[in-house]
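User: Can you predict the 3D structure for this chain?
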Amino acid sequence: MNHSNPQRGVALLTILLMVVTATILAVGLLTRQDRMMRETSMLLRQDQSLQYALAGENLYGTLLIASAKENANVDSAKSLWAKPIPPYPVEDGAVMGKLIDQSGKFNLNNLYHDGQADQPAVAYFKRLLTQVGLPTALASAVLDWQDPDDNPADADGAESSFYLGQQPAYQAANRPFGQVDELKKVRGFDTKSYQLLAPYVTALPLPSLININTAPMPVIAALDENITPASVNAWITARKANPDPITQVSQMWLDPAFSKVPDDKKNALTALLDVKSSYFQAQIDVNLSGRDRFLTSDIYRVGQKVYVWRRSLAPIPVAVPVAAS
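Assistant: Here is the predicted structure, written as structure tokens:
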């Protein structure tokens, strides 16, 4: 009996099975290799984007130092660091960014420091709330958020006993603000009220002065109840048109926009103001292959040295003025 044909059939099937198995393994290996190459390429692109962003941060630091060498006593929209830089083209993309003066805003951490509430700063903050269309009662909750005790400032304040009753429950920070967006957790703040205030406040690590050369209208108008937004807008228009920045705070008080501010109050407010800046924020966007990588760098400048005291890779938040109700 001839068994050669069945044996050849079994051998052929075995060979076909081996070929199929080898093909499946090869396809699997190629697929895995392709995925690894794509993942590696993506990681390399991300690292490349970060290096571009850090180069942008270094550029802004260099500009701040050069600006300080040019004029160590004054910062304004005419300073070297304030001049816009066009997008810088790189392979398959571009690097974009801007430098924002944080010293032109009200520092939330001015409200409580050295173990006590700063009453002039609290009064200033209440006037700023009024300027943006918010109730002054919010100041109590903001102060309670950062003071270390658990006693509400007044009926409008809020400590952990209030926040533990929220859903979900949480506690008051009882420390200085780390980010402006912490305001969203403070009693009385919803999305609209946060958006109204956010463009005009900052959260710096130490108490700071407000640069009148770069401060926007609501921050300037909040100096005193007798100052009107219309008069401040006229003053800001003149400030922008003047080729020379303000070199002393006392120059501002000579303008008709501030004529109704009592002299004794001018002296007290002068201690809260300055004509130069120490804190800045670099917002950098690197777009490579259609993908964005963000870097936000908070920069402190003292003399002719700069220090990055915080970095974030989160998408850059948009804080633009919105109309009050």
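The chain has a mean pLDDT of 90. Residues 1-325 form one domain.
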